[in-house]
Design brief:
By secondary structure, the chain is an alpha/beta fold. Helices cover 42% and strands 23% of the residues. It starts with a helix and ends in a 9-residue tail after the last helix.
């Protein structure tokens, strides 16, 4: 038994049993992948995959039961390597961060700048995606740390920690009628609305507020990106609803922001990493730089707890 055999099995599942994609991901040949899998099956004495001719179509019952052990062995091997690197070179290495657009664009820059000053030898890579994609990047090992508002807390395989609370703002051109008088859901519903796609940046709380009030909003355009929403609000194609952190008075001179914290439920941005993943020393430093309340001890307590940490 060797790690290449285990990687072939794990990657076959990740690539939905497409051996061509497995070979590409592992930088080897398709016959090589097939041989590694077959040799492991011969050694274990059971077939791990259901086959149709030479094609893999799924996991057998033994394969489904043994897969978590394969993944654990590979995770432990990665942790062993990371732990050794931490002892050998504590201030250098790599850190992969997965985040939604709003976090990458508005929340992360200052933390990344401060972290780079502390650890100039650490190579950072930033991946953007939907909250679900952020979770998947963590689960696959593509990212070390993930940051999003939705989805992360729904995965038991992730250690999830609350970072900060935030509210929404309504953004409109300088002469818009909503700037005069109290902001209510009823007044807001009189205008076309431009806001986030479903599942992004607190959109669920926006929909819930209107539904609870029995009001059907005129959502005419949705986007993942607050900058896109602000662009169309600036063109007066609709009233923009964005995360408050996405509005900057100096940068967004052609827009005015109205606090909507009283209309929509407060949102919580969370940071997560894969349960069992070894965090190098500088990773703890990054987490605390991004969310000062998440000290190394708080993170360790969360790792050792079966319930999510409630510190914000």
């Amino acid at each position: 038994m060797n790690f290449q055999q285990l990687r072939s099995v794990r990657e076959a599942v990740r690539q939905r049993f497409n051996l061509t994609d497995v070979a590409e991901a592992l930088h080897t040949s398709q016959p090589g992948v097939s041989r590694q899998i077959r040799e492991l099956e011969d050694e274990l004495g059971v077939e791990l995959f259901i086959r149709a001719g030479k094609r893999l179509t799924g996991l057998t019952q033994p394969g489904a039961q043994l897969l978590p052990i394969v993944e654990r062995l590979l995770a432990d091997a990665d942790n062993l390597r990371h732990a050794a690197q931490d002892f050998a070179s504590q201030d250098s290495g790599s850190l992969s961060i997965a985040a939604t657009h709003s976090q990458a664009r508005y929340a992360l820059p200052s933390a990344v700048k401060d972290f780079r000053e502390l650890f100039p030898k650490v190579t950072l890579s930033l991946h953007q995606g939907s909250p679900r994609q952020v979770a998947e990047m963590l689960l696959s090992g593509e990212a070390d740390v993930g940051i999003a508002t939705e989805a992360l807390a729904h995965y038991d395989q992730l250690v999830t920690l609350p970072c900060y609370r935030w509210t929404h703002s309504v953004v409109v051109p300088p002469d818009h009628p909503l700037l005069h008088g109290p902001l209510t859901l009823e007044r807001l519903s009189r205008f076309p609305i431009v806001t986030y796609d479903a599942g992004y940046t607190g959109r669920t709380h926006i929909d819930e507020a209107f539904a609870k009030a029995g009001i059907q909003p005129q959502v005419v355009l949705t986007a993942m990106d607050a900058d896109v929403i602000k662009t169309y609000a600036e063109l007066d194609l609709g009233v923009g609803i964005v995360a408050s952190i996405a509005y900057d008075e100096e940068r967004d001179r052609n827009l005015r922001a109205i606090d909507a914290g009283h209309l929509f439920e407060v949102n919580m941005t969370r940071l997560a990493f894969r349960r069992g993943h070894f965090l190098r020393g500088y990773m703890y430093s990054f987490i605390e730089t991004f969310a000062p309340s998440l000290t190394r001890q708080v993170v360790l307590d969360a790792v050792n707890s079966d319930t999510p940490t409630q510190a914000a």
